[in-house]
């Protein structure tokens, strides 16, 4: 096994990798940019090195700086995490060629073959894996596009060979759109991937996105760890992922898992990887292979009990996978919610800023992967994901209930987050039924719903995230042994007078803003400025002579207190209406305790 590993990444995935290293007895090296000097992954590592300024192109993507750092630190392995250099075959090849350093990932040749989507399709076809009807050779002319449109029926998709994740894809709905779409797909391919090669597939309008997790060692064992459903996406960004997929039955699950195994075996693939499929009308079609650990690997870990990052490290070190396919069991259900610092009510715009409150939930079946703490600055330099909440339960139904509980206790303020969006989805009939497809969010969930969710559950509204507006503050009061959270509006008078003008505050009045009743009603919602008649001494309530909504006058007896072996009438100092009676016969009260609250 390795002695010291450099993690060429940041944030929660860097911490995730270092946790696996710690359990294997591997020392860890972090790299960081100027923006990340105090970041969580830097704190977690045994050693940390600055590799450059905040922009990723000058730090986390600086291949030379990272290789030099590995050398300087004496690291014998590099794990790339996801994003940044993770799927860069040229960087993987450089690490493979560096003396004494192992690349924790697939062979660079397999990355290269699968990175080109036309060769990936050819590999899959050779392995008898169903692909979307289309071409596996480059397409050059609009005439060819139209021929394919006639053959498969419109719409068709023109895709960049170097593409993936939604970039460089153009949909052609009729023959006359072929010309423009072809030009624009080529332009995007050239701009994003330095490769104008494109190919054509039949376009499926409303598929599910189902992906299979693979582990393959260097001793000819290829395992699939079941599938994940990532159909809930917004503009090609996954937001909620789950395992297993609610859309597959046992036969389809078996078939798609076996197809994924055949495909990566054909590619000469080792380490962890994901084979993505589109599923429509109980048919599945290969889409692409992700040659890296993915954000959503966690849900697979939760239902299989397999530590995927640990296996990546063991595979890279030449060790054998511990299990045969028959030993991989899927148990229960897991859902991952990405906690992004974005505002769902503003088209999910990133919301950088200070993380003023950060108290994640816990308890049975709740996992939080993160690299932040309260008080951290959420910078705008990198992606907006600040944590992942992963919830596991024996069934999907119970996982949804547990998710409601966990999200309801995820206390974050400062940046707006997509927690309100997740809570909206937990009430969404289509999502709850598991019937959502990849086009669902963008076409069916409207701005009004999102606005309402943020209003109801967002961190800026007192009820959800515990925030309060400038003119309010929260008080905790205890009345007769029951705790009440009271929202006090500062612009209300501190002492409100009862009944007639100038009656004066009753003697011994608590005189402050509000109180609850002891009836069990939702006292927190009352923000009334009431007066209380309080006990002038410690004692026992012998009788209560009024009840809520009684009109009383000055001098009326409202209750009788026994104190110092004497019965003492408690009289009202003025007129008013009884709002609440927080005490009852037999209660012991302390000096200052409210006995009667007036409106
Ligand atoms: C498709 C497709 C329908 N038919 N290809 C989007 C990302 C890129 N990896 C491929 N994508 C798609 N390819 C054919 N032939 C629909 C999508 C697609 C999609 C796929 C997965 C998850 C979300 C998506 C959202 C829109 C479109």
Stretches where pLDDT is under 50 for at least 5 consecutive residues are 461-467, 494-529
CATH superfamily of the largest domain: ATP-grasp fold, B domain
Percent range for β-strand residues = 25-35%
Largest sheet: 8 strands, antiparallel
What is the number of independent domains?
A: 5
Domain Biotin carboxylation: 1-446
Domain Lipoyl-binding: 522-599
Cofactor: Co(2+); Mn(2+); biotin
Keywords: ATP-binding, Biotin, Ligase, Magnesium, Nucleotide-binding
Can you offer a commentary on this structure?
- The chain folds into five domains: 4-104, Rossmann fold (3-Layer(aba) Sandwich), CATH 3.40.50; 105-132 and 209-331, ATP-grasp fold, B domain (D-amino Acid Aminotransferase, Chain A, domain 1, 2-Layer Sandwich); 134-202, Dna Ligase, domain 1; 333-461, ATP-grasp fold, B domain (D-amino Acid Aminotransferase, Chain A, domain 1, 2-Layer Sandwich), CATH 3.30.470; 528-598, OB fold (Dihydrolipoamide Acetyltransferase, E2P) (Beta Barrel), CATH 2.40.50.
- The chain contains 17 helices and 32 strands.
- An eight-stranded antiparallel sheet has the order 13-12-9-10-11-14-21-19, with helices on both faces. Strands 3-2-1-4-5 form a five-stranded parallel sheet. Strands 25-32-30-27 form a four-stranded antiparallel sheet, with no helix packed on it.
- Residues 461-467 and 494-529 have low confidence and may be disordered.
- Residues 132, 157, 164-166, 169, 201-204, 207, 209, 233, 236, 278, 287-288, 438 line the site of ligand MV4.
- Residues 495-523 are annotated as: Disordered.
- Its cofactor is Co(2+); Mn(2+); biotin.
- This is Carbamoyl-phosphate synthaseATP-binding subunit L.
């Amino acid at each position: 096994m390795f002695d010291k590993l450099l993690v060429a990444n940041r944030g929660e995935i860097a911490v995730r990798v270092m946790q696996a290293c710690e359990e294997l007895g591997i020392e860890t090296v972090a790299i960081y940019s100027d923006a990340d000097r105090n970041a969580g992954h830097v704190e977690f590592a045994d050693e940390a090195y600055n590799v450059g300024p905040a922009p990723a192109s000058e730090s986390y993507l600086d291949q030379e700086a990272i290789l030099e750092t590995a050398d300087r630190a004496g690291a014998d392995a590099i794990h790339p995490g996801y994003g940044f250099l993770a799927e860069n075959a040229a960087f993987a090849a450089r690490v493979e060629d560096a003396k004494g350093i192992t690349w924790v990932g697939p062979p660079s040749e397999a990355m290269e073959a699968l990175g080109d989507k036309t060769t990936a399709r050819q590999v899959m076809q050779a392995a008898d894996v169903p692909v979307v009807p289309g071409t596996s050779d480059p397409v050059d002319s609009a005439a060819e596009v139209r021929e394919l449109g006639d053959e498969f029926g419109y719409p068709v998709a023109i895709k960049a060979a170097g593409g993936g994740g939604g970039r460089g894809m153009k949909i052609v709905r009729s023959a006359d759109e072929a010309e423009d779409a072809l030009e624009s797909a080529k332009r995007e391919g050239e701009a994003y991937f330095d490769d104008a090669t494109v190919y054509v597939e039949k376009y499926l309008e409303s598929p599910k996105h189902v992906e299979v997790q693979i582990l393959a060692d260097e001793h000819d064992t290829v395992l699939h760890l079941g599938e994940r459903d990532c159909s809930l996406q917004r503009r090609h960004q996954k937001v909620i992922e789950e395992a297993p997929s609610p859309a597959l039955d046992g036969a389809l699950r078996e078939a798609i898992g076996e197809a994924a195994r055949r495909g990566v075996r054909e590619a000469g693939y080792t380490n962890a990887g994901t084979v993505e499929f589109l599923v429509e009308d109980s048919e599945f079609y290969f889409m692409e292979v992700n040659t890296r650990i993915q954000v959503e690997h966690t849900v697979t870990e939760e239902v299989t009990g397999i530590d995927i990052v640990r296996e990546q490290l063991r595979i890279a070190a030449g060790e054998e996978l511990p299990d045969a396919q028959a030993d991989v069991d899927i148990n229960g259900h897991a859902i991952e919610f990405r906690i992004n610092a974005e505002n769902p009510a503003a088209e999910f715009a990133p919301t950088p800023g200070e993380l003023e409150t950060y108290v994640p939930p816990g308890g049975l079946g709740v996992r939080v992967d993160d690299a932040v703490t309260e008080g951290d600055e959420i910078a705008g330099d990198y992606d907006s994901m600040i944590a992942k909440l992963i919830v596991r339960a024996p069934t999907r139904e119970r996982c949804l209930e547990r998710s409601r509980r966990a999200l309801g206790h995820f206390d974050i303020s400062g940046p707006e987050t997509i927690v309100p969006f997740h809570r909206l989805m937990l009430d969404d009939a289509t999502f709850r039924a598991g019937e959502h497809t990849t086009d669902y969010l963008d076409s069916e969930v409207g701005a009004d719903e999102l606005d309402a969710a943020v209003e109801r559950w967002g961190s800026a509204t007192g009820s959800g995230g515990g925030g309060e507006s400038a003119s309010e503050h929260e008080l905790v009061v205890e009345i007769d042994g029951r705790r009440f959270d009271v929202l006090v509006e500062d612009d209300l008078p501190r002492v409100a007078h009862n009944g007639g003008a100038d009656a004066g505050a009753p003697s011994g009045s608590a005189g402050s803003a509000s109180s609850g009743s002891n009836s069990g009603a939702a006292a927190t919602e009352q923000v009334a400025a009431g007066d209380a008649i309080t006990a002038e001494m410690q004692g026992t309530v012998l009788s209560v002579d009024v009840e809520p909504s009684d009109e009383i006058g000055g001098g009326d007896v409202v209750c009788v207190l026994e104190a110092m072996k004497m019965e003492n009438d408690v009289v009202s100092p003025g007129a008013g209406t009884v709002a609440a009676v927080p005490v009852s016969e037999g209660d012991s009260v302390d000096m200052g305790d409210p006995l009667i609250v007036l409106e």
